[in-house]
Amino acid sequence: MTSSYSNAPPRRPLSSTSLRWLLPIMLVLFFLAILIWLPWQARQMESNERLEQLIADTLWVEQTIRFQMARDEESLRALGVEIATGDLTPKQLHERMARLLRNGKELVRVVWLKPDGALAASSDPLPNPVELSPLSRETAEITRKTRRPMYTQPAAQTQVANAAPAAVLMDYHVPLFRGNEYLGDLMATFQTSALLDEMVPWWFAQDNQVSLVDRDDKVLARRAAAGPGHGVYTHKRALDLPGASVTLVTDSVKSAPKLLPNLLVGSVIVLSLGLLWSLLALWGHISKRLAAEGALRQQMSFRTAMENSLVTGLRARDLEGRITYVNPAFCQIVGYPAEDIVGKLPPMPYWAAEAMSEYEARFASVLAGKVTPQFETFFQRPNGERVPVLVFEAPLVDNHGRQTGWMGSILDISDRKRIEEVNRQQQEKLQASARLATMGEIASMLAHELNQPLAAISSYTTGALNVLERDGPVERSLLKPALEQASAQAQRAGQIIRSVHEFVKKREPLRQAVAIASLLDGIRALIELQARQSYVSYRTEIPPDLPPVRADRVMIEQVLLNLTRNGIEAMQHVQPQRRLLKVVAAHHADTQQVSVAVIDQGHGIPDEVAQRLFSPFFSTKAEGMGMGLNICRTAIEFHGGALTFRANPEGGTIFTFVLPAATEQETI
């Protein structure tokens, strides 16, 4: 019989003594785990706090540096405008440049270079010839083409007098233009080390190594008041400099927090001195907070002083469109104190009634999260005065990267508008002078042309008188043809005189719907007069369904008369059978434009002349002033069109200008 018991020892249940030992051991292990976890967690929290503080301080330093550089940029651009308008004497210009160096320690030189690279003015008492680096020359060429200020990539230079030996410098180029005339380059040189020395607060430099590096992480400048950083807490922030890649790098001198060497001893110390440590920590935290608040108040006072000294108006709005901040310059522009504006929702008191729909449309786009980065408008002051302004708008982002509203910069462009109006009036005077000069050239031809109808009138009237002196009844059939011919010749002479009077008459530009055929009919007598003198055949090809253009009649008549006269003069030395002048018009439905081409078969335009054809005061005629084609192009561009030329395949030149076609509402 087989036994039912196995040979394995029996299992015994845990005794109460084992349970008593197991529970304390688990509690001890849990306590030790707590002791290990708490210092580690505290270390992590401290590391995160230090890193967050470093990021916030770095952002603040970057904004401080960029704000000062933006202020320097604005001062340089304002100086460039005054140079372009010619309002400054050489002495005043030198004083303004020297003042820029005194106000900004980061600037070591301000010079004005002419288009050929020669030195026109300098902030140095004894200016020396300026030798630009290849990077600086390349940047100057780019700014000339784009008409936008730019920085050069920082590099070591030794030829600047006020800079430290082998200092890393960065040039800022502002192109100078008077209209389309390039006046040269206003260049300011920044010393990168001075940016850190002047704009990084001492309290920040005591805790961090601050550096400026390029795109290849090459150090351009460094400030390490408390020694090199440990590489534990670092942050990079790129400076938004057009044309240059410069990054602000901060490296804290603090090392990572360490765990206590003996957790058990540390736990006893923590438990016994916890209260005292808490009080000391609280006192230290309060002291640091008070010091930080004092430094912050000092920096806020400094920033407020800078904002109050700006001539550019600043306006901050939240996401609902409510104004949260304005600076004194903005209040001066709109004529309202800050307490009447801050905290208000649209409509604003400085909105003009006639432009209310425009303001409301822009406000609706702001609420939708879309703004126009740059636009022109006008504000109304309490006395009813309208102030034209240029508005720049950009998102306002907090230190967490969240958009909290919109920041706008407002420039009062009243002076610019007045200058534009003066330029427009001067252009009109120049066009009137050009018309008078044109009429002076054709005065001799007018005398010859008027002699013909006057002689015909005299002949017909003499014949009629002879018929009347005959004895017997007078037959009407003999007198009527003579009188009709005399009347036709008188109308012809009158048409020539009216054409001249309308052409030289000075008046304000008036845009209206006008047909090309009507324009040509108005000056046909003057064109044919010049054509007959040079034995040139004149022909027009105008489609019957050609839509009218929206233009000033007299200005376009002047353009047509100048172009046809140039074409007639270009064919004086060709064979008589090839002397054909054509005016061809066409409608381009895709662009809603009308083109008019003046075609001659003359000698053509050489390449060296074509490059300067539209330049003011350039002429191939011995007696010419060189303003005819320049005025023609200005008149066409004033109407929103363009004037171009190309070679005629049959010999000669084709001048073509395009004008916008008039709409049906304008035609009615």
TrEMBL record:
Keywords noted in UniProt: ATP-binding, Kinase, Membrane, Nucleotide-binding, Phosphoprotein, Transferase, Transmembrane, Transmembrane helix, Two-component regulatory system
Gene Ontology molecular function: any one: phosphorelay sensor kinase activity
Catalytic function, reaction form: ATP + protein L-histidine = ADP + protein N-phospho-L-histidine
CDD domains linked: HisKA, PAS
PROSITE patterns: HIS_KIN, PAC, PAS
Domain Histidine kinase, first and last residues per copy: 445-663
Assigned EC number: 2.7.13.3
Transmembrane segments: 20-40, 263-283
InterPro entries in the cross-refs: HATPase_C_sf, HATPase_dom, His_kinase_dom, HisK_dim/P_dom, HisK_dim/P_sf, PAC, PAS, PAS-assoc_C
Record domain PAS: where: 298-344
Span of domain PAC: 373-425
Any Pfam family hit: HATPase_c
Classification via PANTHER family: PEROXIDE STRESS-ACTIVATED HISTIDINE KINASE MAK3, SENSOR HISTIDINE KINASE
NCBIfam families: sensory_box
Protein name in the entry: histidine kinase
Organism: Duganella lactea
Lineage, top ranks: Bacteria, Pseudomonadati, Pseudomonadota, Betaproteobacteria, Burkholderiales
